[in-house]
Write a structure and sequence with these properties.
The chain has 2 domains: 263 residues, Single-stranded right-handed beta-helix, Pectin lyase-like (Pectate Lyase C-like, 3 Solenoid); 77 residues, Immunoglobulin-like (Sandwich), CATH 2.60.40.3080. By secondary structure, it is mainly β. Strand 31 and strand 32 form a beta hairpin. The relative contact order is 0.06. It is elongated. Helix content is 3%, strand content 52%. The chain starts with 9 loop residues before the first strand and ends with a strand. The chain has a 19-stranded parallel sheet that branches. A 10-stranded parallel sheet has the order 2-4-6-9-12-15-18-21-24-27, with no helix packed on it. It has a 4-stranded antiparallel sheet with strand order 36-35-38-39, with no helix packed on it.
Length: 356
């Protein structure tokens, strides 16, 4: 069904069914400001179910056994889906300009979601080849990932929080400028695989990364970094070490520092420091950085500053804890007693992670 120019209209389709077509509903032209609303619709056994470069809204719809459910929106378009099911498609949707997806089920798909930056909340991803492929620019929260070959294959720029990953071959592969926090990453083959060009742009914090059968954590880079703000559910450093892949196992990989927590995963018992993360490790990819953490001993953090500036200590939520006026040179800062992950922000906007 070739839909011609719509001249700013809003379309509403209720209880619409489209089975066994090749191109489905399509229009190759961009339609800025045009909305298509689908409620209680069913798209099955189509090569392409929908190819419209407009703002697409789906409610209580089923996309089943299609080549692509919502095809690429190259010229223009967004996607909003609520209470929908995407079942056994080759791709559920691809290359939308932005998405907002809530309370949806994605099950038995191949590449499932390709590109398509935006927001996902309270969704389930079960038994997909890739739940997210070539993922970037996503906020993914309160979601459940199980029995996927790869849960999230992330190229960067995403925030993943309050999710559960279990029984996946690989739960997460994370790239640069990505934050994963407050997740349960358990009983997978591989928990977290870090592929970032610069792992120091990632934030991995307040996760339980436990009982994954091959590795809890893989450092697939040649850079050193730390994951002190994560619990590996053991007080035995030898056991924890056996489930971390880094430079101790492969000399082409960087080293990973970590912490040992008590049984509650609330209190740190000890830090395992394989390498001092000094100026080289923290800024070798960005020699314009004006601050680096030179050393740390509990609350006492030593900063090397290249100029006079103001530092602001932030919580992960962005709340201001305190601020410091510092000069050029080696500066010692005394930080709060409360354990946790903090961010130090410079005048120029640089961010450093600090774990207490």
């Amino acid at each position: 069904l070739n839909i011609k120019g719509s001249q700013g209209a809003t379309f509403q389709m209720n209880n619409f069914k489209l089975f066994d077509s090749y191109y489905g509903l399509y229009n190759d032209l961009g339609e800025p400001g045009v909305s298509y609303n689908f409620a209680n619709c069913h798209f099955k056994n189509n090569n392409y179910a929908i190819q419209l470069n407009a703002d697409m809204n789906y409610s209580n719809c089923i996309f089943e056994s299609n080549g692509v459910g919502q095809a690429a929106q190259i010229s223009y378009g967004s996607l909003t889906a609520t209470n929908c099911q995407f079942l056994n498609n080759f791709c559920s949707f691809t290359w939308s300009n932005s998405v907002n997806v809530t309370n949806c089920l994605f099950q038995g798909n191949q590449n499932n979601i390709v590109g398509s930056p935006g927001f996902f909340d309270n969704c389930q991803f079960i038994d997909n080849e890739y739940a997210f492929a070539e993922a970037y620019g996503h906020t993914i929260q309160n979601c459940y990932f199980a029995q996927n070959t790869i849960g999230i294959d992330n190229s960067g720029g995403s925030n993943i929080s309050n999710c559960t990953f279990e029984y996946n071959n690989i739960a997460l592969k994370i790239g640069d400028n990505t934050s994963i926090s407050n997740n349960q990453i358990v009983n997978n083959q591989i928990g977290v695989a870090v592929t970032a060009y610069n792992p120091n742009t990632t934030i991995i914090s307040d996760n339980q990364i436990c009982n994954n059968t091959e590795f809890n954590l893989q450092n697939l880079t040649d850079k050193n970094f730390q994951v002190n703000a994560n619990c590996f559910c053991s007080q035995d450093s030898t056991y924890i070490e056996s489930y971390i892949l880094d430079g101790y196992d492969d000399i082409t990989r960087g080293l990973v520092n970590y912490a040992i927590y008590d049984d509650s995963c609330e209190s740190i018992l000890n830090y395992i420091v394989k390498i001092q993360l000094d100026e080289l490790e923290l800024s070798e990819l960005n020699m314009e950085n004006t601050i680096v953490i030179y050393a740390q001993n509990g609350q006492l953090v030593t900063i090397k500053s290249k100029r006079n500036q103001k530092l602001t200590l932030l919580s992960l939520s962005g709340a201001v804890i305190s601020s410091f006026e510092i000069g050029e040179g080696i500066i010692e800062l005394t930080l709060p007693q409360t354990q946790g992950l903090y961010l130090l922000k410079s005048t120029s906007g640089e961010l450093l992670k600090v774990v207490l």
